[in-house]
Design goal:
alpha+beta, 43% helix, 3-stranded antiparallel β-sheet
Length: 136
């Protein structure tokens, strides 16, 4: 989809070159750069399941970094015992204690993960939480 969108913007710029000069070329370059950035992001993991903690990719606006925009995803470490649940649409991960005011909704992109991987994710988190309880 992004390749087609980029190709269409380049073709449109070439067709309208005679009338408007460099304007359409600039727009085509911006469209191509945006498309390349989105293609790069498609291949970034949304969650990394590690032995001791869960690393979840969060939007750059969620991280307190003075609005530093990066092409690389930010990963927030979350301890397995802190995971309280996942929203119905798999777009929020709830972390914290299950008391009033104790849960934080962390925006995640788990909605795009396959159903089998979602089940594996749930099973791994539950197993790690059981291990923490047994070791306590």
């Amino acid at each position: 989809m992004y390749v087609i969108f980029s190709a269409a913007s380049i073709i449109f710029a070439i067709w309208h070159d005679l009338n408007h000069g460099i304007v359409f070329y600039a727009v085509a370059v911006l469209v191509v750069l945006f498309s390349l950035w989105r293609i790069n992001r498609v291949h970034s993991p949304v969650a990394l399941i590690c032995e001791n903690k869960l690393l979840v990719a969060v939007p750059w606006s969620f991280v307190n970094s003075d609005y530093y925009i990066s092409i690389h995803p930010f990963y927030m470490p979350v301890e397995y015992k802190e995971v309280a649940g996942v929203s119905n649409g798999w777009n929020r991960l709830y972390i914290g204690a299950r008391i009033a005011g104790g849960i934080v909704a962390l925006p995640v992109q788990l909605a795009y993960v396959s159903m089998g991987d979602k089940i594996d994710f749930q099973n791994w988190v539950e197993r790690k939480q059981e291990e923490v309880v047994e070791n306590s």
